[in-house]
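Changelog note: in this version the structure field was regenerated for every chain. One regenerated record is shown below for reference.
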Amino acid sequence: MPLPPTDSIPDLLLRSIPRGLVMAVDEALGVGAQRAHAAAKGMDEGHLPHVVGQLRHFHMNESFHRALAMGDASPTAIRGNGIVSGRSGVFTLARFNIPEGFWINGRRSHTRRQMSFANKAIEPLVQPELFDQYTTPSDAVAFFVACFSGSLHIQPESPVSIQIAVPDRDMRGWLFREPVNAFLQRYEQEPAVQDDLAKPKLKKYKKQGNDGTAP
């Protein structure tokens, strides 16, 4: 019987995505959301939720694109409503927004569902019956998901949380999902190798006289 893999999805993410890039994306999505909120001021209440939603898409796409570019993650071009994605290690990185708790909304995009099929290769890491099919993947997909309050009267200017999420191949469930601030702590848990700089010193030998006393 084959041994189960020693990999885990968090390990794959940590090896592929530098800490600085995760921090940059986290900050960029917050900035994009704030710009969208500011740009929507003065709009009529009747269509304000739709206006804010569209402005979040555009402003957060732009800030996400900049974060990927600064992190050498080769972002795709910004084109209308198109998905912006980048590449870091084995992971393609993309983003979307949802009202808090409505994770099923992520499936609405046909393109995101197509992208997620690559995660078939890492499903065995969370489905033990598939362990014998696992090999280290060359392609996988992770999303940065900004979760907003469902009401524009509660924290409309920024996400309630930003999470890093790895869907299954059909995007019907999540192989891994964690708030970015918790995920960043994983980098600190990596074992640190510290050189032993201590150098032992020998005590000086004092010559004794014939009677056993020091001269």
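Spot check on this record: Confidence is low (pLDDT under 50) at residues 192-215. The chain has five helices and five strands.
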